[in-house]
Every structure is written in C-alpha cells, then in structure tokens.
Amino acid sequence: MGEVAVKYKIMCDPDIEEVNAEGIASAMQEMNSDVGVVQMVETKPLAFGLKFVEAHCVIQEGDGTVDQFEDSIRSILGVGEVEVLEIGRL
Questions:
Q1: Nearest CA among 74, 2, 1, 63 for reference residue 33
Q2: Are 1 and 63 in contact (CB under 8 A)?
Q3: The predicted structure's pLDDT at residue 9
Q4: Fewer Cβ neighbours under 10 Å: the N or C end of the chain?
Q5: Which pTM value belongs to this model?
Q6: 47 has which bridge partners?
Q7: What's the rounded Cα separation, in Å, for the pair 42 and 86?
Q8: What integer pLDDT is reported at residue 18 of this predicted model?
Q9: Which domains are present in the chain?
Q10: Per-residue pLDDT tens for 78-87?
C-alpha cells in the first residue's frame, strides 16, 4: 500500500480566545496517529496579526485514512478550519 503527501492549512478557532497558532503547531508536532505522521509544521502570517498553521503530513493510502487523520487534527484543542492545500501520491 502506498502513501499520500498532504499539505494542510489549519486555522485557529475564533471562538476560543486563549488559543494561538503556536500552541496548535506544538500539538501537531506531538500528534500520534495510526494512519499518518506529521513531517513539518510552520506558523505563517495571514492578515492583521493573525496566523495559521501549515502542516506537511504523510498518510497511508486507503479508504478513509485521510478523513481519519483530519479527525485527529480537529481533535486538537483550538483547531477551527482544516483545509487541504495540496495532495499527492508518494
């Protein structure tokens, strides 16, 4: 079975005031998932002082594995929107 490389844009939940992009990035680096690994995490500026997290991940190819990995990302406290920027097979 192959692997899929996915680049995510992860936004902070605007309803939670004490959450910031650096905290989410730190949690992403420590995230454990049965279907994938986080290769690289960066915080990047968005606008007006807001930041987002860009994560480069490698996920096992299979039915529902990308969805399962994204659910793991969404379970991190403070994660709002998760958007796929790029996806490709390795």
A1: 74
A2: no
A3: 97
A4: N
A5: 0.91
A6: 50
A7: 15
A8: 85
A9: 3-89 (3.30.70.60)
A10: 999 999 999 9
Burial 14-33 (b: 16+ CB within 10 A, else e): eeeeebbbebbbebbeebeb
Token code pair at residue 20: 């910031």
The owner of tokens 């379970």 is 75
Sign of the Cα torsion 54, 51, 67, 27 reads positive
CA 30 to chain CA mean position, Å: 12
Type of residue at 20? N
* 43, amino acid identity: T
Show the CA angle centred on residue 60, arms to residues 88 and 28, nearest 5°: 85
